[in-house]
Design a protein that fits this description.
The complex is a heterodimer. Chain A contains six helices and 17 strands. By secondary structure, chain A is α+β, with helices and mostly antiparallel strands. In chain A, helix 1 crosses helix 3 and helix 5 runs antiparallel to helix 6. In chain B, the strands form two sheets. Chain B has a 13-stranded mixed sheet. A four-stranded mixed sheet of chain B has the order 4-3-2-7. Chain B has three helices and 17 strands. By secondary structure, chain B is mainly β. The chains are: A alpha+beta, B mainly beta.
């Protein structure tokens, strides 16, 4: 299958369920909101090494936030609901509570909820106070700057993680250019994040390794430098570099839509091939076939 | 569908009208009981009934009709004029709209729902029996002891609240955009009184001038509910006074600083 000169491999991305939450961070300026969002979603590229995956979904205008200030929305995913709660307490506590002028709100109404502000309030050492407005409880935690406001409970939903596309390039420059174009196109989709740096990873992994203590290791079948060394390679002869974009979303459809936009953008930007990663269908229940995404 | 009740004539003495809630106005509405002073009477004796449904409109001068909307749990009740004492007392849900003034003790002991008074309210707004939830929005002024004993919930006054607002309140939030009278927050343990002008008692201690984050949520909500909250009030700096020092000193009076 060809699209804008790129070969679209007839395969599928294999995604799996993860629990996710949306965090709305506001601040006195867009810059401080973004700073807090970046800090909160830092070191959250892969659940294997970081216990969660997180990223900034988009920037928010003052008219879109609960307190009428500029903000960002961020998504955080973990393997279960309890994990989402624990990671949110850690990350909101260390990265948002600490950041000048910020406040932090739940960004998704859901049947399932995790306690965040109700844990962070203890930083107030007894001087914290709560407010209930329109059925929602908020905690006011006194801090040296003034006061940190955080919502008590955050919604958690069963989302979809591990959506992905993999782009090949005939040289390193064209490969990264295609990946950048794909990531840019995907960011416009609401309800997804791309957890890796700049949305892109150069080090896609396979499950396990020859070392028992290492749960994931380099995807040797997709390493161009190992083409002459491994038993089975998936790298065509004219390909010099490969990048992957991983997509986590609050639901399946936004993940599919992000993959569709990324696939088209990568092809338009000069990728030689676009494929996707899977585990033979044995890992995740969500199979997103590339042929269904080609316009 | 709207159920309309029209008061035929002013009662000679106060009419106790606990039956006038959307929950109770079902079936043979004209036969529902009322108390006219010490006499038991019926809705049909005083009101003309037309239509049906849980959107109820009561027309006429109800300033001598007490307990309108008391204990209601759902639906919408509109009083097209003034209403007597204890309107919305003990409400648990739904919305009670008073297009004129409300008498004393409106919203006393509320548990939930919303009471909106387009005019002014008398003494003891939301006071007595410890209000534990819901929202009271008064567009005009409120009499003395608004929010006395408040335990939870929001009382917002677009104009001025009288003396002893938040007297012995335990928690909750009172907003008075037009200032408050003397002895605000006397004996308060927790909770917030937010206003544009006040003279705190000597048992309150000045803490600082700052922009409380939570206040933006409250004031923006009151804007949405139609109160004339200005951008200066939303974005403004507030002096925080902690008190009452005779109690826990966990309460606060926030007073808007002049721009």
């Amino acid at each position: 299958m060809k699209l804008h000169g790129a070969e679209i491999v007839d395969t599928f991305a294999e995604a799996f369920p993860m629990w996710g939450s949306r965090v709305v961070i506001t601040a006195a300026t867009p810059a401080w909101a973004l700073e807090a969002g970046r800090s909160m979603t830092g070191f959250a590229t892969s659940v294997i090494g970081c216990k969660c995956e997180a990223g900034i979904e988009r920037e928010l205008d003052p008219g879109e936030t609960p307190d009428g200030r500029p903000g960002v929305s961020a998504l955080l995913f973990a393997m279960d609901k309890e994990g989402v709660g624990k990671r949110l307490v850690e990350r909101v506590g260390q990265s948002v509570l600490t950041c000048p002028t910020t406040a932090c709100f739940n960004g998704i109404d859901a049947e399932d909820e995790v306690d965040v502000g109700g844990q962070l309030r203890f930083f107030g050492d007894g001087y914290q106070a709560s407010k209930v407005l329109d059925g929602r409880r908020y905690w006011r935690v006194p801090v040296m700057e003034g006061e940190f406001l955080v919502q008590e409970r955050f919604g958690a939903v069963e989302g979809v993680a591990g959506g992905n596309i993999i782009m090949f390039g005939r040289d390193a420059e064209s490969a990264v250019r295609a990946a950048e174009a794909a990531a840019d196109a995907m960011r416009a989709v609401e309800g997804v994040i791309l957890p890796f740096p700049g949305g892109i990873t150069r080090s896609g992994s396979k499950v396990g390794s020859r070392y028992s203590a290492v749960p994931a290791s380099t995807n040797d079948a997709l390493c161009p430098s190992l083409r002459g060394q491994v038993e089975r390679t998936e790298v065509p002869e004219d390909v010099e570099s490969v990048f992957e974009i991983v997509i986590d979303g609050l639901a399946l459809e936004p993940v599919r839509e992000a993959m569709r936009r990324g696939l088209v953008a990568a092809a338009e930007a000069g990728a030689s091939h676009v494929t996707a990663g899977n585990y033979g269908g044995n890992l995740g229940p969500f199979h997103i076939h590339l042929r269904e995404l080609v316009p | 569908m709207t159920l309309t009740l029209t008061l035929r004539e002013q009662p000679d003495v106060a009419l106790d009208a606990e039956a006038l809630t959307p929950d109770r106005l079902v079936g043979d509405i004209a036969a529902l009981p009322l108390w006219h002073g010490k006499e038991r009477t019926r809705v049909g004796e005083f009101f003309e009934v037309a239509g049906s449904g849980d959107d109820v409109r009561v027309e006429g001068d109800l300033s001598r009709v007490k307990y309108v909307g008391a204990g209601m749990t759902a639906g919408r009740l509109t009083v097209a004029g003034d209403v007597g004492a204890h309107a919305g007392a003990g409400m648990r849900g739904g919305e009670l709209h008073v297009e004129g003034d409300a008498g004393d003790h409106a919203g006393a002991g509320m548990r939930g729902g919303r009471l909106v008074v387009r005019g002014s309210a008398g003494r003891g707004l939301g006071a007595g029996e410890r209000m534990r939830g819901g929202e009271i929005v008064v567009h005009g002024d409120a009499g003395a002891q608004a929010g006395a004993g408040l335990r939870r919930g929001l009382i917002a006054v677009g104009g001025r609240a009288g003396d002893a607002v938040g007297l012995r309140m335990l928690a909750g939030t009172i907003v008075a955009l037009g200032g408050v009278g003397r002895h605000a927050g006397a004996g308060m343990r927790r909770g917030s009184i937010v206003t544009t002008a006040a003279e705190p008692l000597s048992t309150f201690t000045f803490s600082c001038v700052y922009r409380p984050s939570y206040l933006r949520l409250y004031l923006r909500r009151l804007q949405a509910l139609g109160l004339p909250v200005t951008d200066e009030q939303v974005d403004g700096r507030y002096a925080r006074w902690s008190g009452d020092g005779l109690e826990l000193r966990r309460g606060e009076i926030l007073i808007l600083e002049a721009a």
